[in-house]
C-alpha cells in the first residue's frame, strides 16, 4: 500500500473489519462472519481499538463496547478517508491450475495490487467454462477481501470479469506502462523508467508459458517484455514479486 495521505492516521496493526456499507452513526455493529471472527477467533474485549471500512477507502476508528452473541459493537471515535494509491497497479493474471489462483490474488493483494484481471491465456491448464465463470470470479474476489483484512487494507482490490488476449490488449491502451514477464526477455525490469503516477499493468502468463503470438500481441499493444532475474517464478508468485519491486520504486520513495 501507499503511505497515508495528509491528515490520514497511520494504518497500524489495529484489526480491520469490512462492511458492505459504512453507516454514518456514532456506533457500529459488526455481525455475521465478521462478528464471529472478532469474538471467537480474535477474542476482542471492551476497550480495544479497531477499525471498520467499506472496502472503498472510508474508515471508522473506534473502541469495542461489547463483544458477544450479537457481534462486535463499536463506539466510533474518528472517521477518515484513505486515498487511492498512486500509481495504480493492475495485475493481468493467467488462470493458474488448482487453488493457485486464490493464492496469486492473496499475495498480490498483500503487496498492493489495485485491480486484478483474470486472463484466459492460450496455455492455461484451468478453463472457466461458462457455468464456472461466476464461481471462479467469486472465489478470487473472496480471496482479495480476506487478504485485505489480513493486511489491514481499507481498499479491496477490484477483480474484473475474465478477459481474452484481445481484450487485454485493448485494455493496455489506457495504461501508462505495461510489462509482460517473459523468461526469455533480455531487458530486466530494473532498467525500465517507471512512472510515478498513472496506471501500471503487469501481465503474468500461465504454467505453460506465453505463446509467441501472445508476446507479439502484447508488444504491439505497447507492453515491454521484461524479466525479474535469472530464476523462473511460479505464475502464482511472479505477479506479487513484480508488484513488490514496483512499490519500492514508486510508492515508497
Automatic annotation (TrEMBL):
<comment type="similarity">
    <text>Belongs to the RNA methyltransferase RsmE family.</text>
</comment>
<dbReference type="InterPro" id="IPR015947">
    <property type="entry name" value="PUA-like_sf"/>
</dbReference>
<dbReference type="InterPro" id="IPR046886">
    <property type="entry name" value="RsmE_MTase_dom"/>
</dbReference>
<dbReference type="GO" id="GO:0005737">
    <property type="term" value="C:cytoplasm"/>
</dbReference>
<feature type="domain" description="Ribosomal RNA small subunit methyltransferase E methyltransferase">
    <location>
        <begin position="86"/>
        <end position="246"/>
    </location>
</feature>
<keyword id="KW-0698">rRNA processing</keyword>
<dbReference type="InterPro" id="IPR029026">
    <property type="entry name" value="tRNA_m1G_MTases_N"/>
</dbReference>
<comment type="function">
    <text>Specifically methylates the N3 position of the uracil ring of uridine 1498 (m3U1498) in 16S rRNA. Acts on the fully assembled 30S ribosomal subunit.</text>
</comment>
<dbReference type="InterPro" id="IPR029028">
    <property type="entry name" value="Alpha/beta_knot_MTases"/>
</dbReference>
<dbReference type="InterPro" id="IPR046887">
    <property type="entry name" value="RsmE_PUA-like"/>
</dbReference>
<feature type="domain" description="Ribosomal RNA small subunit methyltransferase E PUA-like">
    <location>
        <begin position="30"/>
        <end position="70"/>
    </location>
</feature>
<dbReference type="Pfam" id="PF20260">
    <property type="entry name" value="PUA_4"/>
</dbReference>
<keyword id="KW-0963">Cytoplasm</keyword>
<keyword id="KW-0489">Methyltransferase</keyword>
<dbReference type="Pfam" id="PF04452">
    <property type="entry name" value="Methyltrans_RNA"/>
</dbReference>
<dbReference type="GO" id="GO:0070475">
    <property type="term" value="P:rRNA base methylation"/>
</dbReference>
<keyword id="KW-0949">S-adenosyl-L-methionine</keyword>
<dbReference type="GO" id="GO:0070042">
    <property type="term" value="F:rRNA (uridine-N3-)-methyltransferase activity"/>
</dbReference>
<keyword id="KW-0808">Transferase</keyword>
<dbReference type="InterPro" id="IPR006700">
    <property type="entry name" value="RsmE"/>
</dbReference>
<protein>
    <recommendedName>
        <fullName>Ribosomal RNA small subunit methyltransferase E</fullName>
        <ecNumber>2.1.1.193</ecNumber>
    </recommendedName>
</protein>
Amino acid at each position: 500500500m501507499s503511505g497515508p495521505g495528509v491528515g490520514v492516521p497511520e494504518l497500524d496493526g489495529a484489526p480491520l473489519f469490512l462492511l458492505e456499507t459504512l453507516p454514518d452513526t456514532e456506533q457500529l455493529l459488526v455481525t455475521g462472519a465478521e462478528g464471529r471472527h472478532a469474538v471467537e477467533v480474535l477474542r476482542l474485549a471492551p476497550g480495544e481499538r479497531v477499525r471498520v471500512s467499506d472496502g472503498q477507502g472510508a474508515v471508522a476508528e473506534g473502541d469495542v463496547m461489547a463483544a458477544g452473541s450479537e457481534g462486535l459493537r463499536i463506539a466510533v471515535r474518528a472517521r477518515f478517508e484513505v486515498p487511492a494509491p498512486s500509481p495504480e497497479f493492475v495485475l493481468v493474471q493467467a488462470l493458474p491450475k488448482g487453488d493457485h489462483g486464490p493464492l496469486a490474488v492473496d499475495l498480490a493483494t498483500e503487496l498492493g495490487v489495485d485491480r486484478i484481471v483474470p486472463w484466459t491465456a492460450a496455455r492455461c491448464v484451468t478453463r472457466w467454462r461458462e457455468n464456472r465463470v461466476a464461481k471462479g470470479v467469486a472465489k478470487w474476489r473472496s480471496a482479495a477481501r480476506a487478504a485485505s483484512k489480513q493486511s489491514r487494507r481499507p481498499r479491496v482490490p477490484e477483480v474484473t470479469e475474465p478477459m481474452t488476449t484481445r481484450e487485454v490488449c485493448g485494455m493496455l491502451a489506457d495504461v501508462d506502462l505495461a510489462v509482460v514477464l517473459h523468461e526469455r526477455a533480455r531487458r530486466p525490469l530494473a532498467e525500465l523508467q517507471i512512472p510515478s503516477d498513472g496506471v501500471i499493468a503487469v501481465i503474468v502468463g500461465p504454467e505453460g508459458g506465453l505463446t509467441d503470438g501472445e508476446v507479439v500481441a502484447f508488444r504491439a499493444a505497447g507492453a515491454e517484455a521484461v524479466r525479474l532475474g535469472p530464476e523462473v517464478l511460479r505464475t502464482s508468485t511472479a505477479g506479487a514479486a513484480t508488484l513488490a519491486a514496483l512499490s519500492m520504486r514508486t510508492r515508497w520513495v
